[in-house]
Design a protein that fits this description.
It is built from 16 helices and seven strands. It has 442 residues and is of the alpha+beta class. The protein folds into two domains: 187 residues, no CATH class; 206 residues, no CATH class. Helix 3 packs antiparallel against helix 5. The chain is globular, with a radius of gyration of 26 Å. The chain starts with 21 loop residues before the first helix and ends in a 16-residue tail after the last helix.
C-alpha cells in the first residue's frame, strides 16, 4: 500500500482496497519535518501570548502581584483556545471551587488567522493533501503541548495579594486564592481547534485532492469560505456596536465593571470585541441577550432582554438589524463568488446548513460561563451562570436570515426554479420540468 508521503514525494494512491497501515502513518507523522509545523504552532501561541500580555497589563488591578499577573496572562493565552480557569478560594472556613470560561474571541481569531497564513505559506509547495495534513497534525500537537506547559507552569496560589490593600484584606479574613488554567483543557482545546482550522485550510486546496475525493472536498469549499468571512467580520461588527453604544447612550458605561479605569475598560473591550460583535448581531437577529443562572437550592435568575430594551437607552443599537443584514449579505456573496455557476443552488443550500450547524458553536465561544461549588455551607452549594445570547433563538433566526438572503441571490440569478425542483426531489415529487420523451419503438 502506498502511504501518505511528505513534501517532495509523489501523490498517494487511494482506494487500493488494502487495510490502512497505521504503523506506517505513525512513522510518517513522527519522522517527518517538524520545522514548519513548529513555526506554525509558535505563531499561534505567540500571537495569543502577546495580545494576552497586552490585555492583562491593561486590566489587572494595581496590587495584583507578579505571580498573579503572569497567571492571568497564561489564562488569557490558553483560554483563547478553550481552557477554563480553575479557581480555589478559602475564607473563614468555606471553600469555593469554581471554573470560568470567557474566551477572548479577538485573541482567538488573531492567533488562528496568523497560524493559517504561516501554514499556507509553508505548505504552498506540498505535492498533495497528505503532506499538508501531516503538517497540520504536527503543528496542532506542538501548540497543544506548549499551551499545556504554560498552564502547568504559571499557577498562582497562596495568601499573598501584592503589596497593597488586597494583601492586608486577605490576611484579615484568613483568605487564600489559588487559580490556574486547566492543563487538560489547554491541551485538548489547542489540539482540536488548530486541527480543525488547519485541516480546513488544507481542505480548501482542492487541487491537492484526487478525483473522487476532490468532489467531496468541493462540497464544503464555498460554505467554508463563508464561515471564515463571518469570523473575520465579528471584530468589525463588535467595533461598530461598541461605537454606537458609546456615542448614543450609556449602556456600556453603566454595565462596565472597570468604568473608573480607562485602561482597564480599553483592555476589556479589546479582549471581547469579537464576542461583542456576535452579541450585537444576535440582538439584530431578534434573539435575546443577558445573564442566566441556576443553583442547587432550586433558585434561578434570568435577566434576558431583546433589542428594544437595550436600544431604549442607546438608540444607536437600532442599527443592529442593518448590521446583521450587511454581514449576511457579504458572507453569502463570498459563497456565491466561490461557487461554480452550475453548483450555485447546492452551495447556497449547504451554506444555510453551515450557518445552522456553526451558530451553536459561535454562541458558546462568545458567551461567558461560570460554575461554582461551595463546600462548608451545610450540604454544599453549586451554581452555574452564563452571559450571552440565547442559543436556540440566535441559531434559528440567523439561519432564517441567511436562507432569505440566499433566496434573494438565487432570484437575482434567475435560479429559483432549480431550488423548487430540489425541494420537490427531496420530498419525493417529480421535478416541474417537461416530461421526458417517450422511449423509441421496438
Amino acid at each position: 500500500m502506498a502511504t501518505l508521503q511528505g513534501p517532495g514525494a509523489q501523490a498517494p494512491i487511494h482506494n487500493t482496497g488494502d487495510p490502512i497501515d497505521v504503523p506506517a502513518i505513525l512513522r510518517r507523522l513522527l519522522g517527518g519535518d517538524w520545522v514548519g509545523p513548529a513555526l506554525v504552532a509558535a505563531t499561534a501561541v505567540g500571537v495569543a501570548g502577546v495580545l494576552s500580555t497586552l490585555i492583562a497589563l491593561m486590566v489587572k488591578p494595581t496590587d495584583f502581584g507578579v505571580d498573579n499577573s503572569l497567571t492571568l496572562v497564561a489564562w488569557l493565552t490558553t483560554n483563547a483556545f478553550g481552557a477554563d480557569l480553575d479557581v480555589h478560594a478559602k475564607m473563614l472556613g468555606p471553600e469555593i471551587h469554581a471554573s470560568l470560561a470567557a474566551a477572548p474571541l479577538t485573541v482567538t481569531l488573531a492567533a488562528l488567522i496568523s497560524a493559517v497564513l504561516v501554514f499556507r505559506r509553508w505548505t504552498r509547495r506540498h505535492p498533495n493533501v497528505g503532506a499538508a495534513l501531516f503538517d497540520a497534525v504536527r503543528a496542532s500537537l506542538i501548540a497543544a503541548l506548549l499551551l499545556m506547559v504554560i498552564a502547568l507552569v504559571f499557577r498562582s496560589g497562596g495568601d499573598e495579594f501584592g503589596q497593597g490593600w488586597g494583601n492586608e484584606l486577605a490576611h484579615l479574613f484568613d483568605a487564600t486564592l489559588r487559580f490556574a488554567p486547566s492543563a487538560l483543557g489547554a491541551f485538548l482545546g489547542g489540539l482540536i481547534m488548530l486541527m480543525l482550522v488547519l485541516g480546513g485550510s488544507a481542505l480548501l486546496r482542492t487541487d491537492w485532492w484526487p478525483g473522487r475525493l476532490r468532489q467531496a472536498a468541493d462540497l464544503v469549499t464555498a460554505p467554508a469560505y463563508g464561515v471564515a468571512s463571518f469570523a473575520l467580520l465579528l471584530p468589525v461588527a463588535g467595533l461598530v456596536g461598541l461605537g454606537l453604544a458609546l456615542v448614543t447612550g450609556d449602556t456600556v458605561q453603566d454595565s462596565d465593571p472597570t468604568a473608573d479605569d480607562v485602561w482597564s475598560s480599553a483592555g476589556l473591550f479589546l479582549a471581547l470585541l469579537a464576542n461583542g460583535g456576535y452579541w450585537f448581531l444576535g440582538l439584530g437577529s431578534g434573539a435575546g441577550f443577558g445573564a442566566r443562572g441556576s443553583s442547587s437550592d432550586g433558585t434561578s435568575d434570568r435577566d434576558v432582554h431583546h433589542l428594544a430594551h437595550y436600544a431604549g437607552d442607546t438608540w444607536g443599537l437600532w442599527l443592529a438589524p442593518l448590521a446583521l443584514l450587511a454581514v449576511v449579505v457579504l458572507t453569502t456573496w463570498v459563497v456565491v463568488r466561490r461557487a461554480a455557476p452550475e453548483k450555485l443552488v447546492r452551495d447556497l443550500t449547504l451554506w444555510v446548513l453551515a450557518v445552522l450547524l456553526t451558530s451553536p458553536a459561535w454562541t458558546y465561544l462568545s458567551g461567558l460561563h461560570a460554575d461554582m461549588n461551595v463546600i462548608g455551607m451545610g450540604d454544599g452549594y453549586t451554581a452555574h451562570g452564563t452571559i450571552g445570547v440565547v442559543g436556540w433563538q440566535v441559531t434559528l433566526l440567523m439561519t432564517l436570515a441567511t436562507a432569505l438572503v440566499a433566496v434573494g441571490f438565487l432570484w437575482r440569478a434567475g435560479r429559483l426554479g432549480e431550488l423548487a425542483d430540489l425541494a420537490r426531489s427531496l420530498g419525493g415529487s417529480p421535478p416541474s420540468g417537461p416530461p421526458p420523451p417517450p422511449p423509441p419503438p421496438t
